[in-house]
Design brief:
It contains 13 helices and 16 strands. It is an alpha/beta fold. It has three domains: 158 residues, NAD(P)-binding Rossmann-like Domain (Rossmann fold), CATH 3.40.50.720; 162 residues, Dihydrodipicolinate Reductase, domain 2; 77 residues, ACT domain (Alpha-Beta Plaits, 2-Layer Sandwich), CATH 3.30.70.260. The N and C termini lie far apart (48 Å). Bound molecules: L-homoserine. The site of L-homoserine has 8 residues, from helix 6. The site of L-homoserine (HSE) has 8 residues, from helix 6.
Length: 428
């Protein structure tokens, strides 16, 4: 058995550079902890000449990540390029086919191809580890697969996109509209190259689908995640929510119900005094509920050089120690195909709409909700200068089906201007 573990790193962006810095700064400590010398033998990135602030002279260079993944002097292929397909997937498959372990931060690739990659890894006797793919530095994959392995999980929830949480809390704290804070976040470099991955809830939906698989023993099913972004949230929604004692979060929720697996990544109202309600800025939080352990709250940096590289290196250390585990915590062949459902549990909803201020308008809205079986708990109409009245309704607990039917029918009343915004009020 060799006393050295040789890493090949593909992708030298923020996270790749963070990994190099950890190896350089903490080589002796990592060797003491794992019993192996952790070394980088080769690297690959799009641009060889870019100054990244780290010295790459000691590492072999490969233009092609597939060649890097197949090198004889690489034991662990560290994929940090991103992208669901293309070079990331091709090189990951190449590594697994060459019986090399893979450590990746790539949530998109695993959300779309996790089952096939897990099967390939297991058929070859290799492992895939992906702590860095979900919630950056928070060790939630290890928590679910190891520390909490004894539990039956009832619910996994969380704020898993720091950019959205930054935007929502900045809107609230500075009283700024979404569009302005979006531009600020862009200028600060917070947004992904395709901003819709962040604000459309896709990035966070990828992460939720991976947690669901582990928590419920199901095949990753990203296509069944109900996705809704934050771009229709107005500062008024945030103020209304605050007046009622809530804050708006892009909240991921996964539950196993008698009707199937419910996965949702959508803006929700959560109690302001709950751990999730108190989460500010770019931080992430995962809340896990297990039958034996009760509720566990994990909080920390969801992105960035240090936190994400910390998660990558945690996985590398496990491999160095000889700890091997199935990708999603149990053999890929034993993961079931879950029936997907929207949660059947009844919850209250917040509905905001603009109403043409004319006789019969409120009555028509109340009747549309009533016809769908949705009962109004609270209702208010704000002061307005023109003939469009902002109306806010909080419903009694109702099912998603009833709520959707009600909201879909509102524009047909002829009194509602534009599309209403409906947000679940989640008890956390
Ligand atoms: N863009 C993500 C976020 C980090 O803002 O949290 C990468 O998943």
């Amino acid at each position: 058995m060799s006393d050295t573990l040789r890493m090949g790193i593909a992708g030298l962006g923020t996270v790749g550079v963070g990994v190099i810095k950890i190896i350089e700064a903490h080589g002796a400590r990592l060797e003491a902890r794992t019993g192996k010398k952790l070394v980088i033998t080769a690297v690959s990135a799009r641009n060889r000449d870019k100054d990244r602030g780290v010295d790459l002279a000691g590492y072999a260079w490969e233009d092609d990540p597939v060649s890097l993944a197949q090198r004889d002097d690489v034991d662990v292929y560290v994929e940090l390029m991103g992208g669901s397909d293309g070079p990331a997937k091709a090189s990951t498959e190449a590594a697994l086919n060459a019986v090399k372990d893979v450590v990746t931060a790539n949530k998109a690739m695993l959300a779309h191809h996790g089952q096939a990659l897990a099967e390939l890894a297991e058929s070859k006797g290799a492992v895939i580890r992906f702590e860095a793919a979900v919630a950056g530095g928070i060790p939630v994959i290890k928590a679910l697969t190891e520390g909490l392995a004894a539990n039956e999980f009832s619910r996994v929830m969380g704020v898993m996109n720091g950019t959205c949480n930054y935007i929502l809390t900045r809107m609230e704290n500075a009283g700024l509209p979404y569009e302005e804070v979006f531009k600020e976040a862009d200028a600060l470099g917070f947004l992904e190259a395709d901003p819709n991955l962040d604000v459309g809830g896709i990035d966070a939906g990828h992460k939720l689908s991976l947690l669901s698989s582990i928590a419920f023993g199901t095949k990753v099913d990203f296509d069944s995640v109900y996705l809704e972004g934050i771009n229709r949230i107005k500062i008024e929604d945030i103020h209304h929510a605050a007046e009622m004692g809530y804050r708006i979060k892009l909240l991921g929720t996964a539950k196993m119900t008698t009707d199937g697996l419910s996965q949702s990544m959508a803006p929700c109202l959560v109690p302001a005094n709950s751990p999730l309600g108190q989460l500010d800025g770019g931080t992430n939080m995962i809340v896990v509920e297990g039958d034996s352990v009760g509720q566990i709250v994990l909080r920390g940096a969801g992105a960035g050089e240090g936190p994400t590289a910390s998660a990558v290196m945690g996985d590398v250390c496990d491999i160095a120690r000889g700890f091997r585990i199935s990708t999603f915590g149990q053999p890929a062949s034993s993961l079931s195909q879950a029936r997907s459902t929207m949660s059947t549990a009844a919850t209250p909803y917040y509905i905001r709409m603009d109403l043409h201020d004319m006789p019969g308008a409120l009555a028509a809205v109340a009747s549309a909700l009533g016809d769908a079986g949705v009962s109004i708990d609270r209702m208010s109409q704000s002061r307005h200068d023109d003939n469009i009245a902002p109306v806010l309704i909080v419903t009694h607990a109702c099912t998603w089906d009833a709520l959707s039917q009600a909201v879909d029918s509102l524009p047909q009343t002829g009194f509602v201007n534009g599309q209403p915004v409906a947000l679940r009020i989640e008890d956390v």
